[in-house]
Design a protein that fits this description.
The protein is mainly alpha-helical. The protein has one domain. The chain is 61% helix and 4% strand. It contains six helices and two strands. The chain has a two-stranded parallel sheet. Helix 2 packs across helix 5, helix 3 crosses helix 4 and helix 4 runs antiparallel to helix 5. The radius of gyration is 26 Å and the shape is rod-shaped. About 17% of the residues have low confidence. GO terms for molecular function: unfolded protein binding. It comes from Ponticoccus litoralis. InterPro entries: Chaperone_Skp, Skp_dom_sf. This is OmpH family outer membrane protein. Belongs to the Skp family.
Length: 214
């Protein structure tokens, strides 16, 4: 993701001579930054502190909390069902208990698969949120370059050392809030069908079926 952001910034620098454009339009605006052709931005802070980034995070956190709450509910229901099945075992013929235990095991596996799919979908939405954020941030970054006369903006973590005077993070946040706001009604569209990626099963606590014995 950082490489993607750096690539966007470098691409913007190549769209045209921003410094020359700024000169042709007059002196760069007073943004509180030092007069430098190269600026740095802490993208993670822009994402975390901008209105749009915060709304995306709130949306994803709400979805994650809903999945976690559903997992806890399912876990409690399955534990209770397992307890009842175990209590019935001494009074049931072995074959009948084995059928019930197998059915319970199938139910557990189905629910685990469904919850794993939801967790993968949430992870995919997190990736989509970052991509959408980057796309909508480009106009604000372009405006920042025009304002300052900068010809290149780099991700701060990709730079070994940089003076605070060339850190344009706060200005980028302000511009993004002005240009994009909180993203409007369509903050994060639903993923298209089939967009859930393959992944390892999530670590959960859905119980296994009671053991059977011949």
């Amino acid at each position: 993701m950082l490489r993607r952001f750096a690539a966007i910034c470098i691409l913007l620098a190549g769209l045209g001579p921003a410094g020359a454009l700024a000169q042709s339009m007059g002196a760069p605006l007073d943004t509180g930054l030092t007069d430098s052709p190269i600026l740095v931005i802490d993208f993670d802070r822009v994402f975390a502190q901008s209105a749009f980034g915060q709304r995306l995070e709130d949306t994803l956190e709400s979805e994650g909390s809903a999945i976690a709450a559903e997992n806890r509910r399912i876990e409690a229901e399955l534990i209770e069902e397992e307890r009842r099945l175990t209590d019935q075992r001494p009074t049931m013929p072995p074959a009948e208990f084995r059928n019930l235990a197998d059915a319970f095991d199938e139910k557990v596996q189905r629910l685990r698969s469904e919850q794993d799919a939801k967790a993968r979908a949430l992870s995919a939405r997190q990736d989509e949120a970052r991509r959408r954020f980057l796309s909508l941030a480009e106009p604000a970054i372009e405006q920042l370059m025009r304002e300052t006369g900068a010809v290149m903006i780099l991700e701060r973590r990709a730079v070994f050392v940089a003076a605070d005077a060339v850190d344009a993070t706060d200005r980028a946040i302000a511009l993004l809030d002005h240009v994009v706001g909180d993203g409007g009604s369509d903050v994060l569209p639903d993923l298209p069908e089939g967009a859930v990626p393959d992944a390892e099963p999530a670590d959960d606590r859905i119980p296994e079926a009671p053991a059977t014995a011949d």
